[in-house]
Amino acid sequence: MRLAICAVGRLRPGPERALVDDYLTRFDRTGRGIGLGPCATLEVEDRKGGGSAAEGGLLRRAVPKGARLAVLDERGKRLTSPQFADLLAGWRDQGVADAAFVIGGADGLDPALRGAADASVSFGAMVWPHMLVRVMLAEQLYRAASILAGAPYHRA
């Protein structure tokens, strides 16, 4: 199952970009043998300042056709790492070819996009900077692949 991280804004070179790249490289290596990956990053920008509705349109176009859609939202479900791994494994085992994880911009996610999601995932009640959400998502993708592969990375 191919994955995509669809996010508003550009992640510039720096420590956050280095972490995302490192975790996604690890994810791709670990996931390959268990039917997960690769993971692509698709970035969109609303240069006209149309708010969450305009960003929602750009994000919808970035999501691969037919992909399962998961949004990252503070109102979403808080999952443990094994539960997150189970979500990915469930989609993979159902024969889903593509899954996309969507990270909104500063104005949050378009309600229509949020309503169309197959899953809504929260990293807690706090609002996180978008660049850190990407790092946390990339790490959790790697952790999920490690859990599913039976590797010792996750020590519950």
Highlighted features:
156 residues; alpha/beta; five-stranded parallel beta sheet; globular
Strand content: 15-25%
Main beta-sheet annotation: 5 strands, parallel
Structural class by helix and strand composition: alpha/beta
| Average predicted local confidence, pLDDT | 94
Q: Quaternary arrangement of the chains shown?
A: single chain
Distance between the termini: 26 Å
Secondary-structure topology with pairs:
Blueprint: E1 2-8, H1 15-32, E2 39-44, H2 51-62, E3 68-78, H3 81-93, E4 98-103, H4 111-115, E5 119-122, H5 130-149
Parallel strand pairs: 1-2, 1-4, 3-4, 3-5
3D architecture notes:
The chain is of the alpha/beta class and 156 residues long. Helices cover 44% and strands 22% of the residues. The chain has helices at 15-32, 51-62, 81-93, 111-115, 130-149; strands at 2-8, 39-44, 68-78, 98-103, 119-122. Strands 2-1-4-3-5 form a five-stranded parallel β-sheet. Helix 3 links the parallel strand 3 (68-78) and strand 4 (98-103). The protein is globular. The two termini are 26 Å apart.
Summarize the structure.
44% of the residues lie in helices and 22% in strands. With 156 residues, it is of the alpha/beta class. Strand 3, helix 3 and strand 4 (98-103) form a beta-alpha-beta unit.
